[in-house]
Amino acid sequence: MSDNIKVVVKVRPLIKREIDQKLFYQWRINNNTLYQIDRRGKDVGPSFTFDKVYDTTTKTEDVYNDVVKNIVEAATRGFNGTIFAYGQTSSGKTYTMRGTNKVPGIIPLAVLNLFDTIKNIPDRDFVVRVSYIEIYNESLIDLLNLRNTVRIKKTHSGVKLFTTEKVTVTPEEVLELMKKGNVNRHTGSTHMNKKSSRSHSIFQITIESRVHIEGAEEVDVVNVSLLNFVDLAGLERSGETGATGLQFKEGTHINKSLSVLGLVFKQLSEDQNKHVNYRDSKLTRILQNSLGGNSKTSIICAVTPAAVKETISTLQFANRAKTIKNTPAENLVATSSTMIQSLTQEVSSLKTELEIKKRLELNLHKDNCNLQEKLANLQRLILDSFDQNRNPDMISNARRKLHQPRRATISTLHTIQEE
């Protein structure tokens, strides 16, 4: 069953830099349509309509409930899911995805929702594992282990990323790993943003589940799904960002990968049967399954209300994206190739080992008890023997036996002398 990529637009409020520059709102929203306006509020230029357009007062939680929640809950049933944050630099993508300590973003909300959903499915066993990478200057970096080399491999189920994976059992563990990875991300300060992302990041959550059967070590199949949370670096104009040297090089790689992404969207929107340039960029190759493949995909386009050219570019990209069709399907995998089965077998092995140790300890305990009993019997025999040797009657009788022969000898001698 085909499923169009869902596209929404989120307009952020004016920020301090824009207010100081006396910039004004150049877009208005009405019935999920964006209209370009001039300083007097009059409509000028083209308009753009999407599945949903959120104004400056919208909370991230509302965006999550409308766009992301159903994808996360479908992942517990074996469906892949991908959520993109796309837009120009300083448009609010990272804020939307990660949020703050006080206002959680899309990823923290998804993690909490995921574990709540799992908790309410008692008839299935789940294993959740996490990985986190960034694409910096077209190089793949493992944000959970900077010394690890990340590899991409084509498999029967799509493109697989070989990187550090951490098994987690609580939402707190997942969020802690995200914080650890964020510390390792490449960021920098530009004229447009004090803390600008210098790379694309992909936070991945793999979910495995199987029917819960008490005492069973194996089942026929396991559901395996992958959730991708993609925070794209913003398209940059060096004249506006003031980027030079290394930052200019970073911006060049960012723009190139975003151009390839735009080309892939264009090709998919025109004809999904023709060749698509997935391999021209690490970003599109990793996310190949999310673009025209087996995934439920949503794109959150963040726009700046004070910009025109950059916002139009973002909205044109979003227009192409909403015509792309994916074919999401439940992913069933043989148990031998899943982590949940591997962990189950390991648990079974450890249980067997524990039982053997318990039996050995029980036998050892019995042996110790037997030895202690023998020792106690020997000690009693020794004490009884010692007590018998010290009995007064036995000593007196012994003395009589010794004295009687002596008297008899003396008596005999005396008789001889008299004669």
Structural class: alpha+beta
Count of DSSP-assigned helices: 11
Mean pLDDT: 83
Number of strands: 19
Order of helices and strands: EEHEEEEHEHHEEEEEHEEEEHHHEHEEHH
What is the percentage of strand-forming residues? 15-25%
User: Given the C-alpha coordinates, what overall shape results?
Assistant: elongated
* Helix proportion: 40-55%
Radius of gyration: 39 Å
The rounded distance between the terminal residues' Cα atoms is: 144 Å
Profile the largest sheet: 10 strands, mixed
Low-confidence runs: 401-419
Q: Name the quaternary structure.
A: single chain
Protein name: (African queen) hypothetical protein
Main location: cytoplasm
Keywords: ATP-binding, Coiled coil, Cytoplasm, Cytoskeleton, Motor protein, Nucleotide-binding
Subcellular location: Cytoplasm, Cytoskeleton
Protein architecture, described:
This protein is α+β, with helices and mostly antiparallel strands. It is 43% helix and 25% strand. It is built from 11 helices and 19 strands. The protein has helices at 16-20, 60-75, 93-98, 106-119, 171-184, 238-241, 245-270, 282-286, 309-321, 339-389, 392-418, and strands at residues 3-4, 6-11, 27-30, 33-37, 43-49, 52-54, 81-86, 124-136, 139-142, 151-155, 158-162, 166-168, 187-188, 196-197, 200-211, 221-231, 296-303, 325-326, 332-334. Strand 13 (187-188) and strand 14 form a beta hairpin. The longest helix is centred in the C-terminal third of the chain and has 51 residues, at 339-389. It is elongated and about 120 Å long. It starts with a strand and ends with a helix. The model is unreliable at 401-419 (pLDDT under 50). Pfam families: Kinesin. One of its GO terms (molecular function) is microtubule motor activity. It comes from Danaus chrysippus. This is (African queen) hypothetical protein. It is found in: Cytoplasm, Cytoskeleton.
